[in-house]
Structure formats: structure tokens, C-alpha cells
Automatic annotation (TrEMBL):
The protein's name in its UniProt record: Uncharacterized protein
Organism, as annotated: Pseudoroseomonas cervicalis ATCC 49957
Length: 642
């Protein structure tokens, strides 16, 4: 219920005994206020406690609808009658978007004021007069001034303003209420002669502008009609097949290609633009509202409309009617789209939602896996086609019946290649591996593939590869034989060179006879053949063994020679010692037998009884030299002894 109509409304004013409105702050509490309700005349109680805001209430609780409205009207009139100036609002003329300030807000001083003046069919709330002017006041508490009163004010050219008191706070002081009535509350002119004159001038300007605009729009509509008429007869071009394929993949193939009246606005065929619409509504925006304008913008972005319809244009009725004079079947693009969308809704694919349509989220969820599966199938078929083309090109075959091969069952697999590509899986992988093997076979000098040929015309190629393989085998055999011959010749040459070198080293080491004999024995032992034949039959292992044996024999001979050298050196050293001792002994003997060399030689070389041989033979070192010296001393007379 509106605050003005609440039962038991708290009132800030009551009607005093003197006929004036008394503010609750100006009277005694309780019934002592001696005030009545201005609306119903019942006694009021002034409630001025310490908790609730001070107010008047009916002594007997009753419904008093409109009490505050009536009180506020009376209060505003009293305030105006007591005051001598009031704020006038801005005077502004406005016509069809044209605006002109006539006068700014100003304080109007007046000398006299009357309330509820009967002006012959008009009874304004108040009339104020000042400076030779008269101004009517209307107070808007619940209802603003009606159109009949406004028309009468204009006809009689009476200046009037309306003050909006509907939002004036109820529980305020008298001074605050006076401020709202005289200055603060919103106010506007109901009629102002200057404003009316300015509005008439603006209206003439607006009419002139409207006439100019009508002519401009007529020219514009004529140009658009020419463009539409020219484009309307142009046949739609086949759109990109990808849209139709996407619709079929998603399971919407039965919903595209419908003939819709007015579809001549589209630059592409019905299958294409309808598939694009479904792609947007049922897949991309599934679960969301799509309006006709949004769908149209999407198709415009995808360049699917003819030039005059590609522009985002307001297809207002005036424009459509003008164009239909030239193009009878014209329908704005959004209407064509709406017609198609409604058709889809009738078949349960879309739902009508408020100002547009929506597809259930499950529609998009179910469509995406189907599209992915179809895309993978096409990818496999494309890969299979590329593999087949590469194979045939490498084989140099002008075979063009690939479509027939795709749909013909392959004996090795039991189904057609197209079926394998659509299903995927191990069967398709086996087919691709088989094609890889056949592709390797058709390469120059490749090995023949002996498995099935998948129904492809490759038997002649395989026969060539077989012939090439046999030729390669024969060439390889001859090459091996030549290699073996050359290897045998190299081994014979190496063996002969080895024996020659071995013979030279053996002769140098052992002498002609011994060296030749040793080499003959070594070659015969290794080959079982005489030297003339065996010297060319030594393999590398036999040569290594003979080389090792030669090295051992050399080491043995060198060791023997070294031992003999050492023995001879030792004998020479011993002979030198013996010769030295005998030389000293001979010198001493000659010295002991001076002038008697014969005696000296006889003693020196004659057998001595004590030695059992001659001193010369016995003297071999320092010890035997001393022994011989002692025997020499004993043989001399005492006077000649040492």
C-alpha cells in the first residue's frame, strides 16, 4: 500500500482550532493539542514521546486514506500564501530532439497569492501575482496534472508550473517543508508562452528536417532497392562443401537444403547457409540462446549473403515496403533465418526460447563425437588415397580407376578399402603397411614383394623386380667368384712374398743349407706340400705360425751364439791370466839363472817331481805362480835364494 494510503498514518500536522495547520512541535502533547484531521475531521492525539518520532495520530484508530495528501496540499498552499518569493524552473523548449533554453531558473518575487481560485473551468492550487504578471501553481502529490488541464492552459495561454511534492519527506520541520515547496522540490513548466513560441519555431525546423530526411530516405531506399533488385536475380553459388560435410558428420544432413521463401538474399546455396546456421546454433552455441540478429551476424561474418544483405541494416517496414514494389518476394534475412529456425523447432532439433532459439546441450555433445569420428574417417581415406597415388606414380602407371578399387573387396581382407578406412583399427593399419611394402617394391632396383597385390595392376612391376633380382643374384655370384679369384691370387702372392722373405732371413741367420732346409721343412709342415707348391699355399694363420717359429728359432740361435761368445771370452780371459803368470814366472826363472838360459828353460819346462808336470804347465794363476816360486827357491843354492 502506498505510504499516502496507510491506515493510521502518522501525520506531522493537524488542523488547529484557528483553522491553520499546526506542526506537532507547536502544540501540547496528547489531546491537549486540540487538533483535528484535515481529511476526516476526527480528533488527533499529539504523540511526543522519547522513542518514536513526534507525530499526530487519530484518537480513534480508523482508516483515513489520503490524509497526508490532503494535508500536504493544504500545507503547500499555506506556505505559498505566507511567502513572497518562489523558485521558477528552467524554461526549455524541446521538439523531436531539438532543444533550446528559453530562460534559466530564477526567483520570482510576488506581492499577492490566492488558493483555489475559480478561473472558469480551471481551479489551480494557487495563483501568485507580482510585477504585473500572474502565475498558476499546481502541487503534484499523487497525480500529476492531466492532459485536459494542460490543453486548457495552452488554449488560454496561462503560465503555470507544477511542483512535485511526491518525494517530500513527511517527518520534517515546518521550515524544511517550506524550503521544499518554495525551492527544493522538483518543478517544471506546464505552460510558458515563450516556451510555446520557441517550440513552434522548433517544430517548424523539425518538420523541415523531417522533410529533408524523408527525401534522403526515399533516395536511400531507391538506391537500396536497385541494389537488392540486381542481387535478387543473381543465382546462388555453390558454397564451400565443408559446411555440408560438417552437417552430415554431425548427423544433421536431413535438415539442410530446405527451400525457404525469400532465400534469394543468400549468396550461397541453401545447403551451405543452413549447415553454417546449424553449426553455430546446434554445436558452437548449444545450450545458449541465439537470436535471429545474432545468427544473421554470424552468417554475414562468413560472407554468406549477397552484397546488399551483407551490410548490417535496419530492415524497417518502410524500407521493406519500398523494396517490395521492385522485388515482390523480398523478405529481410532475419525473417528467412527465423522461418528456417522455426521449421527446425517443429522437428525437435531446436527449441523456441524467448526472442530466439536454442539447441539442447546434449545435441552438441552428441554431434561432436560423430564429427570427430567422421573427420578421422576422412583423414584415413585421404591418407589412403595419397598412399595409393604415390604408389601408382612411383610405379609409372596411368591407372585411374582408383574409385573402383576403393569400393571393391580386397581378397586378402574380405572387405573394400573404403570400409577399412571408415572403420580404422588393425585392418586399416595392415592395409597401409601392405601398401608401404608395395611402394618399396615399385622403387627402382627394389626386391619383389611375393604377397598379395591388393587387386592393383602391379604384376608386371613385380615380374620386372623378379628379373632384376635374378640379374642381381647372377651379378653378385660373378662378383663373388671374381672376388674369390682375386683374393686367392692375393693370398698366393702374399704367400710367395712371405716365403721369399722368410728364405732370405733364414739363410742370413742359419746359412744357405741350414736356412733352406729349415724353410722347406716349415712350409711342408704347414701345407703338406713340397716347397715349390707349398710356398704359394700359406694362409695368414700358417704364415703367422711360421713367423712365430722363425722368431723362436732366431732367438734360440742367438742365445747359442751368445753363450759361445761368452765362453770364448772367458777362455780368452783365463788364457791372458795364464800367459801373464807364466811370463812373470819365466822372467823370474831367467833372473835366477843368470847366464844359464838353458838351465832356466830346463827347470821351467821340465817335469818337476813335486808337481807331476813342468812348472810352466802348472803355472796358471797367482796361487800356482806362488807355488812355482817356492819350488824355484828350493832348487837354488842357499846363497841365491830369495
Amino acid at each position: 500500500m502506498h505510504d499516502l494510503d496507510r491506515v493510521g498514518t502518522r501525520l506531522p500536522y493537524g488542523l488547529a482550532e484557528d483553522g491553520r495547520l499546526a506542526h506537532v512541535s507547536e502544540v501540547a502533547s496528547g489531546l491537549a493539542c486540540r487538533c483535528r484531521c484535515l481529511r476526516c475531521g476526527e480528533r488527533l492525539v499529539a504523540r511526543k514521546g522519547t522513542i518514536k518520532v513526534h507525530h499526530f495520530a487519530h484518537h480513534v484508530d480508523r482508516a483515513c486514506i489520503g490524509a497526508w495528501e490532503t494535508t500536504l496540499h493544504r500545507l503547500a498552499k499555506e506556505i505559498v500564501l505566507e511567502a513572497r518569493e518562489i523558485l521558477l524552473p528552467d524554461a526549455v523548449a524541446e521538439v523531436d530532439g531539438l532543444r533550446q533554453d528559453v530562460a534559466f531558473a530564477t526567483i520570482f518575487a510576488y506581492e499577492a497569492a490566492e488558493a483555489e481560485v475559480d478561473m472558469g473551468g480551471l481551479r489551480p492550487d494557487a495563483v501568485i501575482r507580482g510585477r504585473g504578471r500572474e502565475l498558476l501553481l499546481e502541487f503534484h502529490v499523487r497525480h500529476p496534472c492531466g492532459p485536459e488541464k494542460l490543453a486548457l492552459l495552452r488554449v488560454r495561454n496561462l503560465p503555470a508550473i507544477e511542483i512535485d511534492l511526491s518525494r517530500v519527506p513527511r517527518h520534517a520541520s515546518r521550515a524544511e517543508h517550506a524550503e521544499q515547496v518554495l525551492r527544493g522540490a522538483p518543478r517544471h513548466w506546464l505552460h510558458n508562452a515563450k516556451v510555446a513560441a520557441e517550440e513552434a519555431r522548433l517544430r517548424r525546423i523539425a518538420e523541415e528536417q523531417a522533410a529533408v530526411e524523408r527525401r534522403r530516405r526515399q533516395r536511400l531506399h531507391g538506391r537500396i532497392a536497385d541494389e537488392v533488385a540486381g542481387a535478387w536475380i543473381e543465382p546462388a553459388s555453390p558454397g564451400h562443401s565443408g559446411w555440408r560435410i560438417r552437417a552430415i558428420d554431425a548427423g544433421f544432413g536431413g535438415f539442410v537444403g530446405r527451400s525457404v521463401p525469400g532465400a534469394e538474399c543468400f549468396a550461397v546455396d541453401a545447403e551451405t547457409w543452413q549447415a553454417a546456421f546449424l553449426d553455430h546454433v546446434a554445436i558452437s552455441a548449444a545450450g545458449h540462446l541465439v537470436t535471429g540478429d545474432a545468427a544473421l551476424r554470424t552468417l554475414q561474418k562468413r560472407q554468406m549473403l549477397k552484397a546488399p544483405f551483407q551490410i548490417r541494416r535496419n530492415w524497417e517496414p518502410e524500407l521493406v515496403a519500398h523494396i517490395r514494389e521492385r522485388v515482390p518476394g523480398l523478405r529481410p534475412p532475419h525473417e528467412v533465418i527465423a522461418d528456417y529456425a522455426d521449421w527446425l523447432a517443429e522437428r525437435g532439433l531446436l527449441m523456441r526460447v524467448r526472442q530466439g532459439w536454442a539447441a539442447a546441450q546434449t545435441v552438441g555433445w552428441e554431434a561432436r563425437p560423430r564429427m570427430e569420428a567422421a573427420s578421422e574417417s576422412r583423414r584415413r581415406q585421404g591418407g589412403l588415397q595419397d598412399k595409393l597415388d604415390t604408389l601408382l606414380q612411383a610405379a609409372g602407371l596411368p591407372w585411374t580407376d582408383t574409385a573402383g578399387w576403393f569400393d571393391k573387396a580386397v581378397p586378402e581382407f574380405g572387405v573394400a578399402p573404403r570400409v577399412l578406412a571408415e572403420e580404422g583399427g588393425e585392418g586399416f593399419e595392415r592395409l597401409m603397411r601392405r601398401l608401404d611394402e608395395l611402394e618399396r617394391m615399385v622403387q627402382p632396383h627394389a626386391s619383389p614383394y611375393e604377397g598379395g597385390l591388393l587387386g592393383l595392376p602391379l604384376e608386371a612391376v613385380r615380374q620386372r623386380r623378379r628379373d632384376e633380382a635374378r640379374a642381381r643374384q647372377e651379378a653378385a655370384r660373378l662378383e663373388r667368384e671374381e672376388f674369390a679369384r682375386q683374393a686367392a691370387e692375393r693370398r698366393r702372392q702374399e704367400s710367395g712374398d712371405f716365403v721369399g722373405t722368410l728364405m732370405t732371413r733364414a739363410v742370413a741367420l742359419m746359412g744357405q743349407h741350414a736356412g733352406t732346409t729349415w724353410v722347406c721343412d716349415a712350409v711342408s709342415a704347414a701345407t703338406g706340400l713340397p716347397l715349390d707348391e707349398g710356398q704359394f699355399a700359406l694362409d695368414w694363420q700358417a704364415r703367422n705360425r711360421i713367423s712365430e717359429a722363425m722368431a723362436g728359432e732366431r732367438d734360440r740361435i742367438m742365445a747359442t751364439r751368445e753363450a759361445e761368445r761368452r765362453r770364448l771370452d772367458k777362455e780368452a780371459e783365463a788364457a791372458a791370466v795364464v800367459a801373464g803368470c807364466r811370463s812373470r814366472l819365466e822372467a823370474e826363472v831367467v833372473a835366477r839363472f843368470p847366464g844359464q838360459p838353458d838351465w832356466a828353460q830346463m827347470w821351467l819346462r821340465g817335469k818337476h817331481p813335486a808337481l807331476g808336470r813342468s812348472p810352466w804347465e802348472h803355472c796358471a794363476d797367482d796361487r800356482t805362480l806362488e807355488r812355482c816360486r817356492s819350488l824355484l827357491d828350493a832348487a837354488l843354492p842357499k846363497g841365491r835364494r830369495r
